[in-house]
């Protein structure tokens, strides 16, 4: 189930959009979107389809029971806790069974058979959507959805089921009932979809190929010079943002083409000047989920110092664990716990922002994030130790090959770096202001934007035709 294959882009998407736009009324359009979502999801496995429908029905019916209890002024806690336990158990079974068995074997040597259970597509995302729905119904911030079809569309719309964003039901409910698609919104959605597609198949995948070459997994890692490993880590850092934000661009673009507006999931995280700032900008929907449904209910910062540290520890442990069933992900989460905790402790002792502090804050954040992605990359502890040793204590500083690589990729690296900044968005906004003048100015901007879109779309098609694209990195989560 992909957004970036040639068959999807050239066949499935056009057919879907034609049928969707010909459908009269919101109910008919919802039906078209749900049917296509079911078909696309079933292509990943009929068993996965049965699972998502079953869990969606469970969440929907549990929400109904919670709503009934609220109307009777009864306690909703029992239904809420039961619902969350079932959903977490389902996620845990598919995602963490093998990890738990392997961990037990490593610590005890009992030799349990390690089950290899395929991870259902998008389960980490749609279970969190259902949990947020149950919590919001329990709090009374949203009403229970009486129509299961609408609720199922919320949980499994192909726009966001695979990699988010983790949309809230309260945000999407009005759009499920009534929405108005304009030509401008459709055009903006198409443009953003193509931007995301090109970001994925042109920039992210190339960065990934360089990361695999320079920061490899396997025996070749031991022989890489220090500079080669650092450049490889930078390519991987670029790949992580370009790959994941590309999916978000495509998801939000698809939404706009259908009249939906979903929350932004990224706000240029690599321009952050602290780690706290980085996590306000990276995977925003996940950060908000843990804030609203874990951190704040535990007391947030409105508790004693030790309890606050514990609350942060739980959130970052869960953040790491959510990303994968391996201890390196837990270490990655706790790594950020340390930096966020230190920044929180020093927040009143550091001087106010200025150009010097901003500059060094940016350098500090980039270094911490870049090294964090190295931890994220290697699930094998032996490989991770080898990578860290090579980065900081390698026997060879550099070789001629890395210099050739850098010289041959200067333009590409510059474009990839700039794509991680607001520069292109600023240019787009300035062009939009010029177009607002109307007349020749509007016509010129339209020609420029159309030509640019056509060029990168054709380039993307050639990249896909050459089979030079890889699955989205966050597919595995």
Automatic annotation (TrEMBL):
Short name of one Pfam family: MBOAT
BP GO terms, sorted: alginic acid biosynthetic process
Assigned keywords, A-Z: Acyltransferase, Cell membrane, Membrane, Transferase, Transmembrane, Transmembrane helix
An example molecular function term from Gene Ontology annotations: acyltransferase activity
Membrane topology according to the record: Multi-pass membrane protein
The keyword NADP appears for this protein: no
Location(s), subcellular: Cell membrane
GO cellular component: plasma membrane
Residues in coiled coil: none
Listed transmembrane segments: 6-23, 32-58, 78-96, 305-323, 329-346, 358-376, 402-424, 445-465
Homology family: Belongs to the membrane-bound acyltransferase family.
Protein name: MBOAT family protein
Lineage of producing organism: Bacteria, Bacillati, Bacillota, Clostridia, Lachnospirales
